[in-house]
Design a protein that fits this description.
Elements lengths: L5 E2 L3 E4 L9 H28 L6 H30 L3 E3 H34 L4 H4 L2 H27 L3 E2 L3 E2 L6 H7 L5 H35 L3 H31 L3 H26 L2 H20 L1
Parallel strand pairs: 2-5
Antiparallel strand pairs: 1-4, 2-3
């Protein structure tokens, strides 16, 4: 037991980002713009994939789920952070905090698994192009996505249930801009050894498994390309995998950079959370569309349709 006094906690106080009071307005505008870009950009990708039959392929099916995950992950934390910045009201109810924690872990885990499934899809497209339509059939894609959802839901639920059994101390100040699991465990008066063991074992497995699939897929792709090297083949592989490889590098590169090169543990959690909840979801639509000819053509067709219907009216 920790020495602090126990109390019946009905709410927590989110201390937010370490921003000077005079800079709140600037950061509010910045994060609002980033959030709107995230939502509109990812919604546009989902809409284009739904409307254009040429995009009804496994790769874009997975991309639409990644876009939905990006919107959801950002929406779990950013609106509350913006409200706190605008109203200077830092409180969040106990149940609101638990729900926010659950959905953040759910969509963060889902994104991790979707990136692994997309890496496998790219492996099949390059290493087994003649069997792509049979290996990545619609039923398998649906099964892989459903499995990603179930594992992510189960993992998030496990950590949430282990958290709600704990008692909390008189100190209700969360040194974060949302209800982060590690920040909440620091406030608990109960024994958190079981939580820490589960985080270490289950979190390690669920992080290393998708990463292993991604690395294995790209090692196989690299082996196939280097076996018969040619500029044309290299360009085709880059055009097929470039966007996904960049997102993976950004996702895991952020994790490595923050946790290995940042000096303060609190700053590590905050920097990583801002990257995963705000920056990466905002960048994904640009990464997957700027160099993607299919997305550009679908967007151009959609714009032409709008112009046509405007002209008819």
């Amino acid at each position: 037991m920790r020495p602090e006094n126990k109390s019946s906690v009905s709410e927590f106080l989110l201390l937010g980002l370490p921003i000077q009071p005079g800079q709140q307005g600037v950061f509010f505008s910045l994060f609002l713009g980033m959030y709107l870009t995230t939502v509109l950009g990812n919604l546009l990708i989902i809409l284009l994939i739904r409307l254009d039959s040429r995009l009804h392929t496994p790769m874009y099916f997975l991309l639409s789920h990644l876009a939905f995950s990006d919107i959801s992950l950002s929406s779990v934390t950013v609106p509350k952070m913006l409200m706190n910045m605008q109203n200077c009201q830092q409180s969040i109810s106990y149940m609101g905090c638990i729900f926010q924690l659950y959905f953040f872990m759910l969509f963060a885990g889902l994104e991790n698994f979707l990136l692994a499934v997309m890496a496998y899809d790219r492996y099949v497209a390059i290493c087994h192009p003649l069997h792509y339509s049979t290996m990545m059939r619609e039923g398998l894609c649906t099964l892989l996505v459903a499995g990603s959802w179930m594992v992510s839901c189960g993992s998030a639920l496990l950590h949430t249930l282990l958290l709600v059994r704990l008692s909390f101390c008189a100190d209700i100040n969360i040194t974060h801009f949302f209800c982060d699991l590690s920040a909440l465990l620091k406030l608990s008066c109960s024994d958190i050894s079981l939580n820490e063991v589960v985080i270490f074992i289950e979190g390690g497995v669920l992080l290393s498994l998708p990463l292993g699939i991604i690395l294995s897929s790209y090692i196989c792709i690299g082996t196939i390309i280097l076996r018969v090297p040619s500029t044309k083949r290299l360009f085709k592989a880059f055009s097929t995998c470039g966007s996904h490889l960049f997102v993976v590098s950004l996702y895991y590169g952020t994790f490595a950079g923050v946790y290995f090169f940042s000096s303060s543990w609190d700053s590590k959690d905050i920097i990583a959370s801002v990257m995963y909840a705000v920056v990466i979801p905002m960048l994904n639509p640009f990464i997957y569309s700027l160099r993607n000819r299919d997305i550009k053509q679908a967007l151009e067709m959609c714009v032409n349709r709008v112009k046509f219907f405007r002209g008819q009216s």
